[in-house]
Amino acid sequence: MQLLKFFKLGRKRRKRFFQIILVVFLALNALSYAGAYALTHFSAPGHIGLGLPRPTNSRRPSDVGLEYVTQRISINQNEWLETWFIPAQRSVSSGTVLLFPGNGGSKAKQLLAPTAVFHRLGYDALLIDFRGVGGSSGNTTTLGVREAKDVALTMNYAQRSSFQRPLILYGVSMGSAAILKAVAHEKVNPDAVILELPFARLLDAVRSRLRAIRLPTFPIAEMLVFWGGIQHRFNGFMHNPVTYAKQVQCPALLLHGKRDQWTTVAEINQIFQNLPGSKELAIFPNTGHSLLVTVDQEHWQQRVDQFLQGV
Asked: Comparing 13-17, 207-211, 279-283, 303-307, which segment has the lowest mean pLDDT?
């Protein structure tokens, strides 16, 4: 009956109806395109532009009593990754941990706290800024897609440089997603991985953030993922760390906050179940999407130390 009433409308009214639908469709796409751009681009400090403020390194390891050496890993003639190498506290290193930050983070902002623990446990540490943040080149993020290539590049650098084994990859949030993708698609083969606060699927991660600001998830989440993929030439709907986890053959430690508003415990359990090798899961009951070592350092150190002793 409703369809019949529609066709009984005058020609001008039907035309007007379709014009309104077209305008709404175009407006949603334009806003989604701009939103995807703003969420995946960083603006330089002091500059006004469409994008998030570019993460910087406002502190140095020496500020927390750690000796370090700044190094660059060349990507090509115009691009590089900046790293900090921090030798172990002991005269003989127990291995090397390569640390990767989350989205919107830098090595100073997110990696110094866990590095201090790895340092006390006797491990060398290499802290890495992904492209687009800190001291590395560029001004964009792809939420773990291109960053997987940065993980692979850093791993190759560590192997060429004969860093002390075992080589352990540690990531926070997006850094964990990049590690999982690097293992699955870039043939990275670490001796162990420590995955803190990963998301299971990019689309679900976008949906959770829209719910947090009380915006409808459909179709906005799908449009953001679509246009972000177009801008950076990847299929965001296939960016699913829960699937990448199936390719991880090395020992894995998964760390998560029970109150994480972005990724549910059920999603973390899916990732954990998909890990085929030796694995451990630690849920921190009283926190959410926070750097876990800063919430309960004693428990974090205990779980990490216990895990590394078996690597």
From this structure: 13-17
Nearest partner of 36 among 263, 223, 234, 262, judged by Cα = 223
Q: Let me know if 69 is exposed, middle or buried by CB neighbors in 10 A (0-12, 13-18, 19+).
A: exposed
What is the Cα–Cα distance from 131 to 25, expressed in whole angstroms? 34
Checking if the pLDDT of 24 tops 90, the result is no
Integer Cα distance of 152 and 154 in angstroms: 5
Distance of CA 276 to the CA centre of its chain: 22
Residue-level pLDDT at 17: 75
Contact indicator for 151, 173 with CB cutoff of 8 Å: no
Handedness of CA 165, 171, 176, 182 (dihedral sign): negative
Q: Can the peptide bond before residue 45 be classed as cis, meaning omega within 30 degrees of 0? A: no
